[in-house]
Design a protein that fits this description.
- The complex is a heterodimer of chains A (about 230) and B (about 230).
- Chain A is an alpha/beta fold.
- Chain A has helices at about 40-50, 70-75, 90-100, 105-115, 135-145, 165-180, 190-195, 215-220, 225-230; strands at about 5-15, 15-25, 30-35, 55-60, 75-80, 150-155, 180-185, 200-205, 205-215.
- A 6-stranded mixed beta sheet of chain A has the order 5-6-7-3-8-9, sandwiched between helices. Chain A has a 3-stranded antiparallel beta sheet with strand order 2-1-4, covered by helices on one side.
- The relative contact order of chain A is 0.18.
- Chain B has one domain.
- Chain B has 9 helices and no strands.
- In chain B, helix 4 (about 55-75) packs antiparallel against helix 8 and helix 6 crosses helix 9.
- The chains are: A alpha/beta (about 230), B mainly alpha (about 230).
């Protein structure tokens, strides 16, 4: 079964079509990098796939289910532009909260385990507002991975990450892919993304200009896809 | 059971965050106490007319002070896009809404219970004489206010002038519940039991709470997912 299927999706803001007839698929164990210039529609598409926004036309399926189905949401992990953790709670309280919301059998243990895996165990009880930017980003990664989602949706995941956080995220994504999970990420950091991506989709003005497997040319020259299929 | 557990998780998170910062509760309480003090200067507390409208005065204070708590309800989710985290979680919009409404209810009720003795002192009214009945009326009025305010908070969360929009949306809808609460509170804070001819107001408040809770639970998913 296809992990993520986007079928004829349109999204309008007023009369303006931000997405036009998008068709995309991602199989289990693959990593799809969504690339495109600012305003191409990457974030809009990811938010529709995540179920935060409804498409004007078309439909999205995650393992055959609609994104807003409760069971589908258990399978999704999302990292957006914001880190989605509370400044006034500690790192442990934040992850325990999400563990409870996702119905994990032992939320506190899962929270401690992920704090350990992201190198935040020693600040588990520190308030997030006192964290550095890199620590906050690593906590966001821990939050997204906490419930072991089958599909990871990442919106610009490498932006504003320090070297350590990039290394942590890349390691976790590699492990996720190796265990058959699916990753869909929008990104401008082509070099980091193409190290992981098995497939690439280029969005241009709300349309898919290219969708296919990642090739050695793309990895060697991140500008290749834009030059060949995009706006140059 | 799972639904109520999720409601509790959301409510406990909101209460914990609020009690840690005390942003909304401090401003709401300070506002309520200052307005009660100002009203005690503006109206002769011992005059019969003031006693007759004491229920109205009290609920005006509660309504405005409550808005300060309700405004923070969904606005608290804005920093770091925390609302995305909640919407992404496998909980229904109804559980999220009800959790937030319960937390707001407890916070607003807390402000009211602190304000009430101050009101009793300033206006020299025997507010404790019918306290159980008064508590029921406070509970019903506050739940109505909380439900309408919480759903309005969700509606206005992404609007720049949400502090202005929330009361503009909330108060007109709240009118029936506030009317009942004012009528009944005026009797109860003056030590009188609820007269049989005023029981209709109690039914009005119960009906308001049931209808708006049901409507809010049905609409909240649509409101949260654009």
């Amino acid at each position: 079964m296809t992990a993520v299927a986007v079928d004829g999706v349109w999204k309008f803001y007023g009369d303006y079509p931000a997405l036009r007839d998008i068709h995309l698929e991602a199989a289990p164990g693959t990593c799809l990098a969504l690339i495109g210039r600012n305003g191409a529609g990457k974030t809009t598409l990811l938010r529709i796939v995540a179920g935060f926004s409804r498409p004007g036309r078309g439909r999205v399926r995650i393992f055959g289910g609609a994104p807003r189905d409760t069971e589908t949401r258990r399978k999704l992990g999302f990292i957006g532009h914001g880190i989605s953790v509370y400044d006034d709670l500690s790192a442990l309280e934040n992850l325990t909260l999400y563990g409870r919301l996702y119905g994990l059998p032992d939320p506190r243990r899962a929270a401690r385990e992920w704090l350990e895996r992201t190198g935040l165990a020693r600040v588990a009880n520190g308030l997030v507002r006192e964290f550095s930017r890199g620590m906050r980003q690593r906590l966001a990664v821990a939050r997204a991975f906490l419930h072991e989602p089958q599909v990871l949706l990442l919106d610009e995941p490498f932006t504003a990450l320090d070297d350590r956080a990039i290394a942590v995220l890349q390691r976790l994504l590699r492990e996720a892919l190796a265990s058959g999970r699916t990753v869909v990420m929008s990104t401008h950091q082509l070099r980091e993304a193409l190290e992981l991506a098995t497939h690439v989709a280029l969005l241009t003005r709300g349309q898919v200009a290219f969708h296919g497997p990642s090739t050695p040319e793309m990895a060697a020259d991140p500008g290749y896809v834009y030059a060949r299929y995009g706006e140059g | 059971m799972r639904f109520f557990h999720q409601v509790w998780v959301v409510a406990a998170k909101d209460l914990r965050a609020e009690l840690r910062t005390k942003e909304a509760i401090n401003s709401s309480l300070a506002f309520a106490l200052v307005i009660l003090l100002m009203f005690s200067f503006a109206f002769d507390p011992l005059a019969d007319t003031t006693r007759e409208m004491s229920g109205g005065l009290l609920w005006i204070v509660f309504a405005f002070a409550g808005t300060l708590v309700l405004n923070r309800s969904f606005a608290r989710e804005l920093p770091n896009d925390c609302l995305d985290g909640l919407i992404a979680a496998p909980i229904s919009g109804a559980a999220l809404f009800l959790g937030k409404a319960c937390a707001n209810f407890l916070l607003v009720l807390g402000v009211q219970l602190v304000s009430l003795p101050v009101f009793g002192v300033f206006y020299s009214v025997p507010w404790t004489r019918q306290f159980p009945e008064l508590l029921v009326v406070l509970g019903l009025g506050t739940w109505g206010m909380t439900v309408v305010g919480t759903v309005s908070s969700a509606l206005t969360v992404n609007i720049r002038l949400r502090e202005l929009m929330l009361p503009m949306l909330t108060y007109p809808i709240l009118f029936p519940a506030l009317l009942g609460a004012m009528e009944l509170t005026a009797e109860l804070v003056n030590g009188n039991p609820i007269a049989p001819d005023k029981l209709g107001f109690l039914k009005l408040m119960i009906g308001f709470d049931v209808i708006y809770t049901a409507v809010s639970l049905a609409l909240v998913e649509t409101i949260l997912v654009s």
